[in-house]
Amino acid sequence: MQTKPRRTVLGFRLLTVVIGLLLLLIIGLYSIRTDNFEGEQNFASRVDYIKDQCDDYTSLSLAAESKSMLRIAEACEQCARDIQTGTNAVEAEVLSRCAENHYLTGIAVLDRDGNVVQYFSKEGALPQQLLQELATAPLLDVAAHPKKTYSVRLVCDDDSYLDLAASARTDADGIVAAFYHTPTDYVHSYNLNCQHLLAGFTTPGDGTLVVTRGDSIIASNDASLLGLAPDAVLPLQLLRERGRFDQMVYVRDANIRSRGYFGYATQGRDFYVYAYLPEGTIYTKTIKNLIFTSVAYLLIVLMIELVRRRTLQNYQQEKARQEHAYQASLEQAAHRAEAANIAKTEFLQRMSHDIRTPINGIRGMIEIGNHYSTDMAKQAECREKIWEASGLLLELVNEVLDMGKLESGEIVLEHRPFNMVTLLTGLCDVLEKQAAERGITIRCEDIALPHPDLIGSPLHVKRLVMNIISNAIKYNKDNGSITLTLHELRSEGDKAWVRFTCADTGIGMSEEFQKHLFEPFAQELLDARSTYGGTGLGMPIAKALIDAMGGTIEFTSRQGEGTTYYITLPFAVDHAAAPQPLPGAPADLSALQGKHILLAEDNDLNLEIAEFLLQNAGLRTTAARNGQEAVTIFAASAPGTFDAILMDVMMPQLDGYEATRAIRALDRPDAGTIPIFAMTANAFTEDRRRAYDSGMNEHLTKPLEPDTLLRTLAKYLQR
């Protein structure tokens, strides 16, 4: 029984070792690559800096030397003009005065063959190096060419230097040579020197930095290397043999058992710059990363091992607990499944009853109407009852669809301007007729708001308010009353909180049923469907809409006395709203007379109904049986033939959205301006948005309300 756990432990430990090795390998390779890159960057920055500075020093030194040569040449020419003896003999006093006037160390007068006739020197005898230069052919050549001046800098063994110039005498046959001696102390103190550049670089941290010129090391941050030949230093010898510049290289002498070096070399004007480090010093981060990774990984493995052992100790207890929980979850799942089946059965039974009841009424009234075909009063009565039954069926379908959308979380709220007072008064106008049939009075006592123009989802606000008022009518007493109020509780900046109150004198609710008011299909009385025509979905829909809009709903109710609802909703204030027209103003439908409408509808019955409504209002219609046909008819017509297009959404070949986009894309003047209205049974917000996005002007839901249809057409056609 223990074989499997033991194998598991061995497998786990082997896995940790393999993972650890792979982790160290990855970290090591990454760290080595990083150290190599950083090492090369550091080498390059130091070497390039030293090279640039050495180049600058060389340029400055050459400039200073050129100025010095020019000054000594000018001084020499002036001295040649100042010596006016007319003979080869020149007194030392004359030369002394010239040297003093021109700030020279000394002056020598030579004959054409380079023999010194007379000289003066502040330092006594003429230096041997100077005498050798005075006998050179280039210098003696100035005697034969009076306009020529010869100048040169002589570097002495003690690092001092002599600036020498020679020119032909102007008063006699011979040569005047002037020189200036720059002492060693001055050279070391004031002249630019590459060694000064390396004063701030340390050997351990920055590596060994070397500047060579010819066969000598002229600068280094390791003072012991100064003056040595490059080949006398092993790293430099190896770097010179590799012969690679401007990249980091690894060098090692295979014949000597010693550490290798990482080095970098570059070439300047007349010098080379080298930098090198022992191979171990460049991988400092790699070693640190490997140590840190090893320690961290060992700690993690140790913690996992401790957790694993504790888990193994509690394994039996946990297994028993899980088994018990599993059994309990199975029982709960079984109860939920049973409850779901019961709920599904009750839902189907209720929907079967609620849907069949108005359908039965519609078919029954048709049978009665057929029987009394000549009795016009009976015919009118049947049509009125058919209309009422179809309205009940439409309400039921709308509520079931709304509830399904809300429960699935697919409801999409609008964000557009509307007037809250206008919305409420419009609903009151619609519902007053229904209330008046039972003698119920609807009173709007206080509906004035400081900010009536708001931004929100008027479609859903209208839906929930209509549900509340409809319930107040359904469950009211005959000759009762309903009182509606609107109050702005508070406003902060661009946001306002509006409270809607609906108080009725109806049958009220018991305290027990109040706990279930917002449950779908909940009704306190068993005969509520037959007595009041309710579905039990109005309040759950209202509650879900209020929650979606971030509002609250409260109520008070006493059985036999009535119910009062308090709904609070937040809205954005519409400061840019235009003044609202006076309510109740009749629509001017005279603009519809003789207008030509393109009607796209694939359903024969819906087409017949739409044609009747339009033609009865004085409009002319042209029918299209699908979206493609609608596009073809419009494209083939002359501009201005049609005044508007009524477009069904769900059609074959091209649906309404595609057909609208195709019409808007046509190259004709009225393609972008002709009003296009969606006619669809898709009544949700997202359907309205799709219609607007495709280029439609309005969204009309089926079944079509004649008054709404004609008012919408009049609004666009009278422009």
- DSSP helical segment count: 21
Category by helix and strand content: alpha+beta
Number of E-type strands? 22
Report helical residue fraction. 40-55%
The span between the termini is 90 Å
- Integer average pLDDT: 81
Task: Give the uncertain stretches in residue-range form.
Answer: 526-533
Described by the principal axes of the CA atoms, the overall outline is elongated
Provide the descriptors you would attach to this structure in a database record.
22 strands; seven-stranded mixed sheet; single chain; five-stranded antiparallel sheet; 719 residues
Description:
The chain is α+β, with helices and mostly antiparallel strands. The chain is 49% helix and 20% strand. The strands form four sheets. Strands 11, 12, 13, 14, 15, 16 and 17 form a seven-stranded mixed beta sheet that branches. It has a five-stranded antiparallel beta sheet with strand order 2-1-5-4-3, sandwiched between helices. A five-stranded antiparallel beta sheet has the order 7-6-10-9-8. Strand 6 (208-213) and strand 7 form a beta hairpin. The chain is elongated and about 160 Å long. It starts with a helix and ends with a helix.
In short, what is this structure?
With 719 residues, the protein is of the alpha+beta class.
Topology:
Layout lengths: L2 H80 L9 H10 L4 E5 L5 E6 L6 H7 L2 H4 L8 E7 L5 E8 L6 E8 L1 H7 L3 H4 L5 H4 L1 E6 L2 E5 L13 H9 L6 E3 L9 E7 L4 E7 L5 H30 L1 H57 L4 H33 L7 E4 H17 L4 E6 L6 E4 L1 H17 L6 E12 L2 E10 L6 H4 L13 H5 L5 H11 L3 E7 L3 E12 L22 E5 L3 H13 L3 E5 L2 H10 L7 E5 L7 H9 L11 E5 L4 H10 L3 E4 L4 H12 L2
Parallel strand pairs: 12-14, 18-19, 18-20, 20-21, 21-22
Antiparallel strand pairs: 1-2, 1-5, 3-4, 4-5, 6-7, 6-10, 8-9, 9-10, 11-13, 13-17, 14-15, 15-17, 16-17
